[in-house]
From TrEMBL:
Superkingdom as given in the UniProt entry: Bacteria
Organism: Marinithermofilum abyssi
UniProt entry tagged with the keyword ATP-binding: yes
Name listed for the protein in its UniProt record: Zinc-transporting ATPase
Keywords: ATP-binding, Cell membrane, Ion transport, Magnesium, Membrane, Metal-binding, Nucleotide-binding, Phosphoprotein, Translocase, Transmembrane, Transmembrane helix, Transport
GO CC annotation: plasma membrane
Amino acid sequence: SIMPAVLSAMSKGARSGLLFKGGSDVAALSQVRVIAFDKTGTLTCGELHVTHVQGVNGFSEEEALLAAASVERLSEHPIAQAIVREAERRGLALEKPARFVSVTGSGVQAVWREHLWKVGKGDFVHVEDGVFQEGEGRGKEGETVVFVTRDGEAAGWIALQDRIRSEAAIAVHALRSQEIRTVLLTGDCPAVAAAVAKESGVDEWRAGLLPDEKVEQIRSLQQRFGPVAMIGDGVNDAPALAAADASVAMGAAGTDVALETARIVLMQDDLNKITEAVGMARKVNRIVK
Ligand code: ADP
Ligand code: MG
């Protein structure tokens, strides 16, 4: 049975938009030494918009965007939504692709107008060095870049801008005063990770991580510091959420997979609630002990 103090914390949490799925999740959170954050949709708002489209190798800007948007229409990723929105804003007519495949944490591909198109990060689509460097140069400004290829040949790249959550730096600072180490784990490139880490003030960051590599990072943090909480919103975060000692999902904008996997849900996507949750969990733990 659940101790009255735990039940009371759970109902108090629920009233302020903090959902603990079980009593043991309160105890788990009270022990946490490290909180690992996903980037897109967690430390950032996850509402991206396209800032630049570049055609290369004789492909026009419009061709690259139309092909990318036609393929991305079948993806739920915030990058995909932004690319589709930009194509629609420019009045491009999207056409249905065939044999669509989504590779979580890397990109998408499909057959469109009898060619195989890929849209995604550099090491997923394999573009030549010159194009890669041109695109990645945008990363220093914190912009995410995805590359577009047709039958293995670079056709263009698309730069997208996200916004860091307004409360991110305050929440990270508050966690530090609770003696919790903060780490950013992202599938995006090092330049973008560094920019977001700097703005939010997290202690460490790791970039270019595939979903399984996020799990490896959780395990390594557990060995170095003790119990770890993971907070994320995406399909790509689910394995890391499952591996962590405590797991938190962004409730408003999070994917179903993240909501199902995580044991704690932030109903309003407010990062300050994590500090509140840790404080509440620690207090309960003292009472129960
Ligand atoms: P994060 O860890 O920041 O939440 P993801 O793991 O979802 O990011 O994605 C990592 C990278 O993979 C993105 O920065 C992007 O380069 C690429 N990517 C993932 N999904 C897509 C997609 N649908 N279209 C294009 N690129 C994608
Ligand atoms: Mg995410």
